[in-house]
Structure formats: structure tokens, C-alpha cells
């Protein structure tokens, strides 16, 4: 029963070679995001996770804002390579921005003070599950995608993103996933021995 799911998670990869096109219509992308947000679990069923789809010129605008912030203080080769990477993300078809609504996290933490310290951790766990579900679904649709964290670094940048895209100030950025039709397959991936990473204990 699990074979189809396991095959699906095995094809998900980081693919940086993306184009300005998407063979998947926007309505389908939106339906995928809605299904993933609806069915991915959250601690205490708080449903704190949020996802925003930006495509076309809005995607370019997003990565221009990120570049302005991320390139500050960088010099030389580091600046050139970072700039090239960010320009390529803005040149993709679109991005999914992932957020966690802090208003929801704060409300549950106030309701159950015994777990106040855990709720932010569980919130990060929840957004990771959502990111994986979207990443895998997009890959199954034939898209190339990566997971980026430039948008999660500075409060000022997150505030700029919230204002530009009219998002609530309680939505904190957790990751951004640029995507598009792939221009090339993903790079080779190496694996550490699985025997060292999974144990079965029977007694
Ligand atoms: C929590 C997390 C954070 C990541 N952050 C970034 C990132 O900021 N930029 C990036 O290019 N890749 C990022 N990645 C992608 C990993 O580098 C990538 O998944 C890993 O090398 C395995 O390759 P694969 O995605 O092709 O399986 C992140 C992955 C995870 C799970």
C-alpha cells in the first residue's frame, strides 16, 4: 500500500535548473497547496501553517526584494555567486512562500502554558511537513524546485515581503520554494549508509 508514496518521496529532489515556464496550470498549483495545507498535521491541530503562491512578475518582484537584503554586506565572488542564484530563482516560474501564523502559536501557548517552549518547535516541524508535501507534489507534476531560506533571515526582509504581498504581520516566513519547468535533471546525490541511520530494536 505504501509503495506509491515511497516511490513519490524518492523522486523529490533539489533542482536549481528551473525555467520561466510551468507546464502545470496555476489552478492546479493552487489546488495542490490547498490539499497540502488541509491535510498536513499540526500540533494540537492548531492549523498554524500558511502557504502563498507567487507567479510570473510577482515572483521576480519577490526575489528582487530578497536580493536587495541578502546581498547587503557581501563582496567579491560570494556576492556574484549569490546574486546569480537569486536572479535564477526570480527567473523561475514561481515560488511558494511558507509561513507560520504566530498569532495561532501564541494563542495555543497561552491556553496550554505547560508546553509554551515546545509550540515554536512543533510549529517548525509542521511547516517542514508541509514543505515536504508541496515539494514532493510539485516534483510528481514534473516541476523542478528547491527549498530556500534567504527570506527567513531578517525581520526587516520578512516585513518587506508581508507589506509587498499584503500578508498579515503575524505570518513569519519559514522557507521559500522557487520552482519552474526543469531545464535539466537534478545533480547526483550521495547517500550515507542507511544501516547507520535506521535501527530496529526487538528486545
Ligand atoms: C530544513 C532544510 C533546509 C534547507 N535549506 C536550503 C537552503 O536554504 N538552500 C538550498 O539551496 N537548499 C536547502 N535545502 C536543501 C538541501 O540542501 C537538500 O535537500 C539536500 O542537499 C538533499 O538534496 P535533495 O533535496 O536533492 O534530496 C534545505 C533542506 C532542508 C530539509
From TrEMBL:
Major location (coarse): cytoplasm
* Location(s) in or outside the cell: Cytoplasm; Nucleus
* CDD domains from the UniProt entry: Frm2-like
Task: Extract one GO molecular function annotation from the record.
Answer: oxidoreductase activity
The UniProt keyword set, sorted, is: Cytoplasm, Nucleus, Oxidoreductase
Pfam families reported in the protein's UniProt record: Nitroreductase
Annotated GO biological process: cellular response to oxidative stress
- Coiled coil: which residue ranges? none
Q: Which InterPro entries did the record assign? A: Frm2/Hbn1, Nitroreductase, Nitroreductase-like
Task: Give the Nitroreductase domain ranges.
Answer: 9-180
Q: Which domain of life is it from?
A: Eukaryota
Q: Name one GO cellular component term.
A: cytoplasm
UniProt cross-references to Gene3D superfamilies, sorted A to Z: NADH Oxidase
- Tell me the protein family, please: Belongs to the nitroreductase family.
Name it: Oxidoreductase
Amino acid at each position: 500500500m505504501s509503495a506509491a508514496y515511497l516511490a513519490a518521496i524518492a523522486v523529490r529532489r533539489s533542482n536549481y535548473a528551473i525555467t520561466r515556464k510551468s507546464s502545470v496550470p496555476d489552478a492546479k498549483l493552487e489546488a495542490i497547496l490547498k490539499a497540502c495545507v488541509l491535510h498536513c498535521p499540526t500540533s494540537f491541530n492548531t492549523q498554524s501553517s500558511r502557504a502563498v503562491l507567487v507567479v510570473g512578475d510577482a515572483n521576480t518582484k519577490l526575489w528582487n526584494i530578497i536580493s536587495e537584503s541578502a546581498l547587503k554586506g557581501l563582496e567579491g565572488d560570494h556576492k556574484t555567486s549569490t546574486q546569480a542564484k537569486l536572479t535564477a530563482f526570480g527567473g523561475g516560474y514561481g515560488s511558494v512562500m511558507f509561513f507560520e501564523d504566530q498569532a495561532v502559536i501564541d494563542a495555543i501557548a497561552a491556553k496550554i502554558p505547560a508546553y509554551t517552549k515546545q509550540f515554536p518547535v512543533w510549529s517548525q516541524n509542521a511547516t517542514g511537513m508541509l514543505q515536504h508535501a508541496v515539494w514532493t507534489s510539485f516534483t510528481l507534476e514534473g516541476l523542478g524546485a528547491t527549498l530556500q531560506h534567504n527570506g527567513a533571515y531578517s525581520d526587516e526582509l520578512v516585513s518587506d515581503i508581508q507589506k509587498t504581498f499584503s500578508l498579515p504581520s503575524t505570518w513569519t516566513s519559514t522557507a521559500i520554494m522557487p520552482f519552474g519547468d526543469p531545464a535539466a535533471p537534478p545533480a547526483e546525490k550521495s547517500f550515507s549508509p542507511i544501516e547507520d541511520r535506521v535501527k530496529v530494536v526487538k528486545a
